[in-house]
Amino acid sequence: MTPSTHPSTAIHVLFVTAEIAPWVKTGGLGDVSAALPPALARAGCEVRVLVPAYPALKAAFPQAQPLIEVPGLALRLPPCRILDAGPLADGARLLLLDSESRFARPGNPYQDPHGNGWPDNGLRFGLLSRVAHWLADNGNLVGWRTDVVHCNDWHAALVPAFRSFLGGGRPSIVTIHNLAFQGLFGPELLGELGLPGHAFRYDGVEFHGKLSFLKAGLQLAERVTTVSPNYAAEIQTPEFGAGLDALLRHRAEELSGILNGIDLNEWNPERDPHIAASYGLATLPRKALNKAALQRRLGLTVDPSVPLIGVVSRMTHQKGSDLIIQAAEDLLTLGYQLAILGAGDHRIEKAFSDLTHRHPHRVVTLIGYEESLAHQIEAGADMFLMPSLFEPCGLNQMYSLRYGTPPIVRRTGGLADTVTDTVPDSIAGQRATGFVFDEPTAGALVAAAARALDAWRQPELWRSLQERGMSKEFGWNDAALRYIEVYLEAMQA
Ligand code: ADP
Ligand code: GLC
Question: How far is the C-alpha of 473 from the C-alpha of 493, rounded, in Å?
């Protein structure tokens, strides 16, 4: 179903998010928020993206114009304003929620520069949710209307609670990018955000004695989505449900999984300004130039005959970083070099750094966040490793496929939806794209890496995996049409 492209009948979407790439990004949410709204606009929606006016965004959009003053909306929600930063790609527009006291800070959206969560995150994202609800009601003041509010992750998930308990607002969908982050706060926040006491109940915003932003959204939004079909099924089980599986089963009829796309302009080996040599299906041998450049840049032994595994990842429990550390010596014994970029838990960062210390020309770890090196690893590595313990969707495995760098992944969440294991059956059926293992153990990871090495040593087989991955259609257009269906359902609910 495609909406009419006539502006008055097009679906008007208020897309609410805490991150937007390239300016403010801690992970895939930033990428999705940059790419999905333009895809929705291309599919005929009128889209406004509402995101807090962090310093990076104010610096990037110095021409942003005041759009409207927002009055104080509760005891701890003083007046603020919304800036219009102008068009993003394809006609989606960017709105900045400007509150000096809440968002004019260093660090990332959630933490100070030392990695500690801001103590007032409940008020910061409570403000984001409350203002989104207010704007959905008051669009006429700025000559715009909202048909549906698209709330991303816990930071925006209180929007449906304001609609349920204060009235007004518009229907909403909540998209779960990661169930592990729920936005839990003390019950006193309820009054500070202007929610009535009776909202604090099991079928409202209460979760084990706390106010839970995400639970509120999952309970009260008209529709719930998550970012892959497999994760939508997994989160209905106790193993992956993070305590919310019963609620998600209860809402199974209104819950669906829509696989993320990737930004085909940003991640395109034929036109990637970050990499040493551009290449595509017809020029695949040029990929070797990127491997040599990466080995050189990182101080690895420069040798095309040494297989090179790349990793770009937050260093956390979710991403299976410990499995990589436990498997590292065995991977080296197999003959691999490792190029690792990431940041996160200090314990994990240190374990990776120690590994580099022990094997300086064979394992290189860069602790930090660097967009261009992420591209260089995707282009230069032979394989990409992503052994996540859970993975709502995952973008890097799709970038890897597009860069002819077959991924080695655990069979979980979106990884299972996007990578097809290389086994006799999938080779014969011309479906194989990577290497998939089941058990969350270093042994299973090493066994998959050994299979990958075996395939790498068979040039014809390897080339077929690369070509198949590079030919996959991972754009956003299909996802945008699926979201539109869900918007229509929410609007009719
Ligand atoms: P998640 O959102 O759970 O971290 P995704 O795979 O969805 O996982 O998205 C991660 C995004 O963040 C990708 O675009 C990836 O390239 C990027 N990324 C993660 N860590 C780093 C890093 N240290 N440096 C550069 N980019 C990174
Ligand atoms: C989350 C998930 C990741 C997903 C991303 C974008 O950060 O951990 O799997 O790809 O959101 O939806």
Answer: 32
| pLDDT over 70 percentage in the chain | 98
* Among 20, 179, 226, 313, residue to substitute to test ligand 1 (most atoms within 8 Å of Cβ): 313
Q: CATH fold of 12-261+476-492, please?
A: Rossmann fold (3.40.50)
- 3-state SS, residue 189: helix
pLDDT at 114: 87
The reported pTM is: 0.95
Ligand nearest to the CA of 177: 2
Does the beta carbon of 315 lie inside 6 Å of ligand 1? no
| 453/239 Cα distance (integer angstroms) | 32
Q: Which residues pair with 111 in a beta bridge?
A: 117
135 touches ligand 1 (CB under 6 Å): no
CATH number of the domain at 281-471, please?
A: 3.40.50.2000
Structure tokens at 22: 């390239």
Q: Where are the domains of the chain?
A: 12-261+476-492, 281-471
Ligand 1 atom with the smallest distance to the CA of 342 is 23
